[in-house]
Every structure is written in structure tokens, then in C-alpha cells.
Amino acid sequence: METSNNPTKKSPTDQFKEELERVRRQLKELYPDALRHSVDTVDKLDQRTPDDWIPRHLEMVRLTGRHPFNCEPPLRYLRDDLTAAELHYVRNHGAVPHLSWDTHRVEVCGLVERPTTFTMDELLALGPLRSIPVTVACTGNRRKEMNHVRHSNGFNWGSGAVSTTVWTGVPLLNVLQHCGVELGQRARYVCLTGADELSAGAYGTSIPLIKAMDPFGDVLLAVGQNGKPLAPDHGYPVRLLVPGWVGGRMVKWLARVEVSENESDNHYHIYDNRILPPHVDKEKADAEKWWYRPEYLFNESNINSVITVPDHGEVLPLTGNQQERYTIRGYAHSGGGRQVTRVEITFDHGNTWEMCELRHPFPPNWAGRSWTWTKFAFEVDVLQLFSVTEFGVRAWDDSNNTQPSALTWNLMGQGNNCIYRVRVRPVHEGAPGSFGLRFEHPAVPGMETGGWMAQEGAHLSGGIPASAAPPPVPEKATMPKGPSRDDSENTVHGSNFYEQRLKKGHKEAAAMDHARKIGMSEVEKHTKEDSAWIVVKGRVYDATKFLDQHPGGKAAIMMNTGTDCTEDFSAIHSERAWNLLSRFYIGDLVDDAEADAQQEPRMEHSESTGNLLREHLRDRARVPKSGDEGANKEEAPVALNPRKYLSVPLEEKRAISHDVDRFRFGLPSAEHRLGLPVGNHLFVRARIDDQTVMRPYTPVTLDADRGHFDLVVKIYRANENPKFPAGGKMSQYLDGLSAGDKIDVKGPLGHFEYLGDGEYELKGKRGSAKQFGFMCGGTGITPAFQVMQAILREESEQPLEVWLLYANNTEGDILLRAELDAWAEKHDNVHVWYTLSHPPSEWKYSSGFIDEEMVREHMPPPGDDTLVGLCGPPPMLEKACKPSLDKLGFSENQYFEF
């Protein structure tokens, strides 16, 4: 495509319209198929979602259910040289922002001489506009192949997450120069942020300044695609385009451009678009801070090739077929401006290779950099296909990069570019005596089943050390479409889906003669920490070795030992838990009579090793040592039973604000105490829409309060938050309760317990502190509130110092504020401070996210007598609280998450 250099003085908007029209004329002449896919209707799957205003192509393959919209085109559409904009793959983390050309602004700030906020017309005036064809590939393209080996953190991209279109825009170089940016000064990065609203903040990332200002790099602030203004899904009204780089760096709905000394600290820059080594799982990445190592950033696209002809499932008939030759076709591309120089094909598993015919649809730019894909073709004798079991392709570029033979698994499931292999299988189809060849690609996108790796991928190592590899992952079952959250790459699926993942592990255990037939009476004996058994879906698991590793503490397992906990396990556990479960499989649950008929190996366990369950629970329900809190506590009957759900009636519901209620639930008698140690929580269970739903809650009452307990709950109603249109299941259920209605509760659970007089138990270890700090966000205030309340009820000559830093969006979101302010006013040892994302005028506390300065001023100093508790949204804890504590000198044993 050519760049327009029309010297006629016209308005920026008129020039933009003329440029789009010029591009459309060229495409209509050269690539008419790219203009034949206009859409003007809203898909019924988008109805009742935040995106119900966006027309979309009905053939796009959805990868994450109804919402957010993540999709790729059927592979057959990538046979064309130019992709229709309506068929370009889409990666959205949440709802598409509804932006207007006239009101949208782009701020350029940071280390610039002239900080400026541009209107869209002002951006256009910094042209001339350029229109260039660019191939954009997602970092997760071909991820499903990787997920067949071991499930990554990402959803199932097929091999269609790559597209080539003509982009129109203003060079970013022009914008930066207009604002007075020069190379060679302090500035090293350009940090870019979108206008989308996600749970972890707007999407953002960064690119090196030298890349942004490369006069040969063609980095654009793109405003058009294939001769039209950008579609909402592709970043309307403006997005970043970095040719040769991965799609994850090309921020859509661009709102802020900041020139900085440092790369972006945005959540999505840190926790996405990285290729970590194969031995690094999520726990290791979090614990050892692998996310912050710049050497694992995925920036330039790597070399890749994919076969598009034949299609997956295509059958080449041989009976009565006069065709002697068959043409295999596909696409290949590389990154960084490197051009593909050859594509090779093998029919004998890589022993020999033959050269494919290449065609470069678009020439390199005037500096010799290639931004688009290459198409390849190879004619093969049909009889030769009959004699092979597979064929594969690999590409080479002008730096002699090529594709590896086998994939290397990584946590994010990104950068898969191993040799693309298509299997050939003889089939009998159609009329009697007919015969043909069926072609199978390695994987099919999204939630569909199929592909040869569905059966064989679990036997591949993926480069994972044997010591680090979990049980293999079988094929993913089809999942129902439904709304999901913006963190949909980590979507939790139904238990039927995860049960499929257990089958192979169970078969292997049985084959090793580890499996047994076990009766329920035998299971019920194993309720101790030295022998902890559970039953899930008719199978028996020995969870003893996992007790100390359980993220929710060993009590969460111990409360279910000796029981069938299928319902509870299915209601709350994630994919990782289902993957781990098969490691601990020891047998199948049968009738006691059938189990007695089988001669079982003797399982020895000593009464002297480990506490009995009742002793463990009694220790966890210890009372504070001083004050009225402990009076006659041992004589009061305990309501909670960690092994059984307790049904409790609603006695009273009181509205605290428009979206916060305080619920009082009755215990079996006025003398009963709940039996919940300070700092622990309980599970609330309900049957909602034919599904068991469980949520953890911390009461705001203490164990000394007899006959009842209170929950303060924020109600997330449907259609109030566009990010979560369905609202909160449990909170809405509780909101609909009437006096006398019952819920089920079970507990206690938790790994922190305040024992009294500054003493505590954290993950089974005793400690003491003179200063307690709490950093909380939103509804995360309740466990801190409970501990603060217990401390303030104590009678001590030297009261403990208590500090609270409490973050919310608005002043109306602050829970329990009346009580917190009253404590701070009455007690000199209580220090309460608030921060709001959207403060009102005349707000006397902090504004914005928690940062290092807030923590320095409103938390106790680090030391052996200090302990800080954290509870709130993960981005707040991981990006704000923990880094600030680390910088101020807190060691990891001086703070914890409830």
C-alpha cells in the first residue's frame, strides 16, 4: 500500500476520510474478498452483556464463552492474502469501552518538554497519515497444543490468532517529537494505557523509546483498518500498532502515553506476555518474582508457520478420484521485520525436507523490513499421501531462525512455534467400498473437541522436568457458553470438565496396583493429620501429604476428612485443584461388604503421631487470655461442626447503606457460641439455580456473643456493574432472604488465629506482636475488623497498637465506618486511615491506590514485634501492599494474607 501525501490544505478529518477512501479503492481492486464481510447485527450471544451494542461476525470462533469477546476466525479464512477486518482475531480482557471520536482524548505526559492532551482531530493533524499492511499475531496463537501437554494459565487459542490487514494512522514518532521527546536523555520507555475498565485497572504495557522513535519501525497510532475507522473490538477510536511485535503490546482504546525512565508497572505488563522457563509454575513464579524479570518479556513475534490446506477434518477421496496432485498450503511469518526466506515440508518425520514454493503478498518497507506474512504451497502426489502418516512444515527467516521440532511448555502458554504437523488417516466413508484420507490438525480452537494432540499431547513432555510435571492433561470437554469475568484466561469450569482430567491419573494408579476397593467405614477412620482421607465423586484420596501445602490451610481439608465432600469440592475448587487431585488417588469407594471381600494391605497409623481431630479443633478455638471474652467460654455449647453443615435461620436483616446489609443468624440456642476462632472464617453454602454455591465470610461478631452471629455483606446486584452483569450469586441470594429463611454454614477455616494479649498462631506457628497493622480493600475489612474488635475488648495495662489502612472506590463503599471511626476517636492506640479512588471534595484522607508513602505513614514500622494482615483484591495486594512493605524493610514473616 502507498502513503498519501496530498499537499492540498484540508482539515485533518477530511484528509482522514480521503485516505480511507483511497485504501478502500485499492482493496476493492486488489483484494475484494477482504471487503465482503461487513456486519451490522448484534450476535444473540452478546445480548445481555456489556457488549450488546457491537456487531460481530457470526462465524468467529469464541474461545471464552459469551463474554468477554475473545475469538479467532476459522482457519480457511486465513488462506487469503488480506484478512477482512471483521475476521481479524480479537483479544479483549473485559467489556469494550463505548468511546466517541469527538470526546476521546489521548494524554502525552512524563519526560516530555510539552505535555499535551490531544483530541482525535489534533492527533490526525500530526500526520501525514500512513497506510501499511501488517500481520499481527497473538502471543497465545497455537496455545491449545500446549494445553494438551499441560494446562497453562491461558485459554485455548487455535492457530487462527493471526491476521493481516491494512492499518492507517499517524506515526508515533511524529507525536513524540511534537511533544519535545529526544533520544539520549533520561527517558527510555514509552508506557501506554487504554481506556478499558478492568478489575486490575486499565490495560497497559510499554515499549522501548528507541523502538517508538525508530524512523524505519512504522510504529503508528492507528485510527483505521482496511479503509474504515477502527471497529470497537479493534480499539476505536485509536490504538497502538507496532509492526513485527506481538499483539499484546498494541494497546487498544489508547488514552495515555507516558515517557518514562522505567518500563510499565501495569498489572498486564507484569503478569502477561512473558515466556517463562518450563519448570516455572505459578507458585514458583509468584514466590520467586519471575514476573519481574525483563529477560522473559515476549516482544518481537517469533517465527511460525501453519498449514491451512488441508483443513482439519477434511477428507480427500481416493476412490474414483482422478486427481493426481494435491496442493498443501499455509502461512508463515516472523517478527522484528525479518522476512521468511524458505518453508520446508517433511513427509518422514523430519528425516528429509523439501522446499515449498513461496509467495510474498506484500513487499518489505523501503528500509527492507517485512511486516507481513508469507504464503507457501507444495504440490504432492496423491499416492504419496496414501503412504505417509503425517506431514509437517517449518519456516526459516533472513536471520536463519527456524522452528523447533517439539514445543516447550510455559506457564502463560505463549510463543508456541514448533513444527506444525498434520496427521493423515485412511478412512472408509460414503458409498460402500469408498476410501479416502482424513487430515487431522494438532488442535482445534476453543472449547471444541478434536485434533490429534487431544489423545497424544498428554504423553509429550513439553520440556518440563519430570520432577515438575503434574499428571497429564486429557482433552478438554465442551463447555457451555456463559458470561465470564475479565480475567477469563483463568476461568473456572464445571466439575464435569475437570473430572475428565482425573481419568488418566486414576488409570495409572490402578495399573501400578495402588488402587483399592475401600468401604466408607474404612474412610471414616482416617480423620487425623497423619492420615487424612476424603472422597470425591466415588473415589478415595489420601490428602495427608498435601495438608501443609493447602492454600486455605490444613483445617480446610481436615474438616472434610472421613467424608464424601464431592459437593463442597466441586463448588469452590479451581482447575489446579482438580489437576492435583489425581496425585492422591488410592482407590474407589464401594460398599463395605465388597471392601471386606477384598484383602486390603494393612494401613498403620499411630495415635501418638499428630493430634486427634477433636484436639486440633479445640486448640483452634482457643479463647483470648484476658477480659470478658474468655469468661465461661468452655461451658458454652459450640454450634459449628467442621465436619457437618449447620443450618441457621435469619433472625434480622438491617440495611447499612444502599448496597450493604447486616445479617443476624440464630444459633441453636441462646447459650450457644459460634465456635469460630478470631481471624478465622466460615463457609456459607446455598443452592442457587440448581448449583451449589459456597463463599467464605468472616462474621463481625465475636465468639463471646451468644446465640447468634452477624455478617456484613456488600450486595452486588445484577446489571449494576457492566463488568459483572450477572451480579454476585451469593450476595443477591442473601439479600433475598426473609426472617426465618435458613442458610448452611461450616467451619472454622483459616491459617491465622488471634489468641489474645498480642499472641497469635500463623500457619501452625506461634508468635507475638505489640503492633498490628491491617491493609484492606473493600469487603476485605471483615477479618481485620474482627481481630481489632478482639484486641479492643482486652484489658491490658499496655494496650496493643493497631493500625488500619483501608482502600475503597468511593466514600459510600467504606464498610463499618461508624464503628471504625468510633474506635479511633475513643482509643489512642487505634489509628485508622482511608484512601479512595474517587474521593469527594473536601476529603481529608488519601486518594488513589495504596502506595509506599501511605504505608510508611499509616502502618507500624517493621520489626520483630510487628505483624501486618492483608485482605483485599489480589491486584491491590500484589501490586501495592506487598511491594510497599518489601521496600520499607518488612520481611515475609512480618505480613500475611488472611
Automatic annotation (TrEMBL):
One MF annotation (Gene Ontology) recorded for this entry: sulfite oxidase activity
PROSITE patterns, per the entry: CYTOCHROME_B5_2, FAD_FR
Organism name: Cyanidium caldarium
Cofactor(s) demanded: FAD; heme; Mo-molybdopterin
Protein name: Nitrate reductase
GO biological process: nitrate assimilation; sulfur compound metabolic process
Superkingdom field: Eukaryota
Region annotated Disordered, chain positions: 462-492
